[in-house]
From TrEMBL:
GO cellular component: mitochondrial inner membrane; respiratory chain complex I
Lineage, highest ranks first: Eukaryota, Metazoa, Chordata, Craniata, Vertebrata
Cell compartment(s), UniProt: Mitochondrion inner membrane
Main location: mitochondrion
Organism: Daphoenositta chrysoptera
Alphabetized Pfam families for the sequence: NDUFB10 (PF10249)
Stretch forming the signal peptide: none
Protein name per UniProt: NADH dehydrogenase [ubiquinone] 1 beta subcomplex subunit 10
Task performed by this protein: Accessory subunit that is involved in the functional assembly of the mitochondrial respiratory chain complex I. Complex I has an NADH dehydrogenase activity with ubiquinone as an immediate electron acceptor and mediates the transfer of electrons from NADH to the respiratory chain.
Family label: Belongs to the complex I NDUFB10 subunit family.
Length: 175
């Protein structure tokens, strides 16, 4: 490459952009409205938002992982204690939702394993299959046949009847 450049062929752009000459002495109304909007609307809103963000940064509050205290079971409530009945019912509903999510998570893991393993799913996903069987059996034992309108009282009665049947079967096996 030659060292000296042909300055006429490759013109260098100017180093500074020239400032346009104002043709009138009247101020531009757009600039006036922009600055008025900035001071009247934008500055106060920005100040309040920054103040709120600073306050929230100091006082972090996390909305997830809400922990409820465990309340007495329905079998531990006194006769006529309606507040205890209500709390036990709410606790039962939370427990049922948690158990439903556990079953769903295990089912999703099982489906992912089947998708990942393909034809070898029966030997490579045996643990997931066994876990899914255990979880669904436990869920069915506790909440099965309650229907959509099941509540803590019917669930408690179902568990009581199951325990009585198991006790009766154990006595018959001993005899």
């Amino acid at each position: 490459m030659p060292e000296d450049h042909d300055w006429e062929a490759y013109k260098v752009p100017p180093t500074r952009t020239p400032v346009s000459e104002r043709t009138t002495s009247v101020p531009n109304p757009v600039n006036f409205f922009q600055s008025a909007f900035s001071y009247v609307f934008d500055a106060p809103v920005t100040f309040v938002r920054e103040w709120i963000e600073r306050w929230q940064a100091k006082n972090k509050f996390y909305y997830y992982h809400q922990k409820f205290r465990r309340v007495p079971d329905l079998s531990e409530c006194l006769e006529g204690d309606y507040l205890c009945y209500y709390e036990a019912e709410a606790q039962w509903r939370r427990d049922r939702m948690v158990d439903q999510e556990i079953v769903e998570i295990v089912r999703e893991r099982m489906a992912a394993c089947k998708q990942r393993e393909g034809p070898n799913q029966f030997q490579n996903c045996a643990k997931e299959m066994e876990l899914l069987a255990q979880v669904t059996k436990a869920y069915q034992d506790r909440y099965g046949d309650l229907g959509y309108h099941g509540n803590a009282r019917t669930c408690l009665m179902k568990q009581k009847h199951r325990m009585m049947e198991e006790r009766k079967a154990a006595q018959e096996n001993q005899s």
